[in-house]
Amino acid sequence: MATNTQTLWRDQEGSALLEGAIVVPILFTLIFGVYDFSWFFYRQHLMTIGVHDAARFLARSHDPCNAASPAWGAEVASAQNVATTGLTTAGTSRIGGWTNRMIAVACTSIDNRTGMDGLRSYRGGAQIYVVTVSSRLADSSLGFFRLLGLRSPVISVAHSERAIGPG
Question: What is the pTM of this model?
């Protein structure tokens, strides 16, 4: 009986099948994980570019951060289009499911104090405006996160630009 057990342990037949059964699931997990994370980072990059473009568009608008201006509402709508489509008018979305309603625009007023030397901290008037454009999107990943029982990640991006007016 001892000789049968010893020959079973030394038998090489089927070892490649056993090794493959162990390695293939690990290999597929790595490959699909890298692919899914690459897809996530690509979409995050597209959102970052869109939000940056929209903030720059608003910072250079005719009358930035003036909610009383009749043009400001139209400029915000155009900036939302710039963020999601890359165009000031409606077009194909950079990312499926990312809409203009997901783009938030905020303006912050900063006091531009005069220093001891009589110069202001920043070039400009007594008030400086900063335009911030932000967005969040629950990323619809390729499905690998759900396969592992994880929730899909949420992409959250924001970009701020100092309002400088037309030029």
Answer: 0.78
